[in-house]
Amino acid sequence: MAAGKKTSAAEAERRQAADEQVRADFRAVEAELDRRWPESKIEPSLERIQALVDLLGDPQRAYPVVHLAGTNGKTSTARMIDALLTEAGLRTGRYTSPHLQSATERICLDGAPITMARYVEVYREVEPYVRLVDERAGDGPAMSKFEVLTAMAFAAFADAPVEAAILETGLGGTWDATNVADGTVSVVTPIGVDHVEYLGPELTGIAGEKAGIIKPGSIAVLAAQDTEVAAVLMERCAEVGATVARQGMEFGVLRRTQAVGGQLLKLQGLGGAYDEVFLPLHGEHQANNAALALAAAEALIGAGANRQLDADAVRSAFAGVAAPGRLERVRTAPAVLVDAAHNPHGARALASALADEFGFRRLIGVLAVLRDKDARGMLDQLEPLLDEVVVTSNSSPRARDVDDLAADAVAVFGADRVVVEPRLDDAVEQAIQMAEEVDEDDGALAGGGVLVTGSVVTAGEARTLFGKEPA
């Protein structure tokens, strides 16, 4: 018995040492990648990523692709497409960005992030080819972090192998590294103004950049858009001979009612109507994402007027969908909600969902944003819903200075409704205390809640604070 215990203890120590080594290797890889151009910096060229995938044997051509671009909703829609294709019996790969807590979230197989060990392994497999491309660049820029990550995803999916890949653009469309893949289905989520320094301030210009993912002969699944944006997308579809499916025309949300823990939907897909679909996510925008995802999955599988997906499989897929950091409840009493909205377009959808589906008598915001984002625009959208706001910062090197953010907040909310806490953990704690304040009229807790938002980084760090695992 004693010998058995010693063996078990020794085995546990070996496993712990192995786990620590994997984590150390993962940190080393991330440090190497972080020495490259960050994802916030791009050069309009596909030459480097094309050279790399050529050296790797074009792994992005080993499977059909659903390719997503747009301003908001890409990750949630990608997760839903993944769930639908998995339920239909396909092995899937999903590539999304940015991540909330761990870079492993970006590369998923069968709906789950790859392990740290596999992440390191894939990096080491592509690293010699990355060095070759860097050397060929001469005085030009070396490969960016996002380009390397994209190649890693392509390679991991080919090695698995997957039967379908869902790829989310990182920034834009035409010049995004993912665009060396040709999507069988091209999905464009709602387009708004974001990344102005690279995409410009005009919606039509932004739409033209994102329309670049629509390839000859593909099926373009288009979310509802402003008229000028829709015209740009349709022009691209005509130019390349893409088949078009438009929200509000060929597919859409027929009915939406609130339900405990989410909403109950009736969706019009390309193959007909799907009733009694429970979606455990909040907000009209998520219902629209669900319709978009359904049409995309149908388009890839070949559903249409004469073929519908199995309705029970569709219901099962949507019922199991999770969207971490998207109006996610991470605490109760008082409720703490985390949302990754990072631009006015996203903040407007967030505010609408809060107004329609939550009944807080007192709601405290915690806001940390990045320097290059329209903080004032976000504050304008959220002001009617928030009683007070705690402005703070996150760990990103691109984080907005807290005093600058406070100045914007005071301009929108007034000084008496703004609190400044430089550290995110202190800001969340302060907001919880404010939400728990006793109502002076009846002495009861005031139905308080806390909303943590402003950035994907903010949402991810808030999830970590509350003990949530990467997903």
Q: Could you outline the blueprint of secondary structure elements for this entry?
A:
Blueprint: H1 2-34, H2 47-55, E1 65-69, H3 74-87, E2 92-95, E3 107-109, E4 112-113, H4 116-137, H5 145-159, E5 164-168, E6 185-188, H6 196-199, H7 203-210, E7 219-222, H8 227-240, E8 243-246, E9 252-259, E10 262-269, E11 272-279, H9 284-301, H10 311-319, E12 328-331, E13 335-338, H11 344-357, E14 362-367, H12 375-382, E15 388-391, H13 402-413, E16 418-420, H14 424-435, E17 448-453, H15 456-465
Parallel strand pairs: 1-5, 1-6, 2-5, 6-7, 7-8, 13-17, 14-15, 14-17, 15-16
Antiparallel strand pairs: 2-3, 3-4, 9-10, 10-11, 12-13
Concise structural overview:
With 471 residues, the protein is α/β, with parallel strands linked by helices.
Going by helix content, strand content and strand pairing, the class is: alpha/beta
If you average the pLDDT, what whole number results? 94
Count the DSSP helices.
15
Radius of gyration: 23 Å
Ends distance: 40 Å
> How much helix is in the residues?
40-55%
Low-confidence stretches: none
Largest sheet: 8 strands, mixed
Portion of residues in beta strands equals 15-25%
Count every beta strand, where a strand is a DSSP E run of 2 or more residues: 17
Shape: globular
Q: Main sheet: which strands, in order across?
A: 4-3-2-5-1-6-7-8
Assembly state of the chains shown: single chain
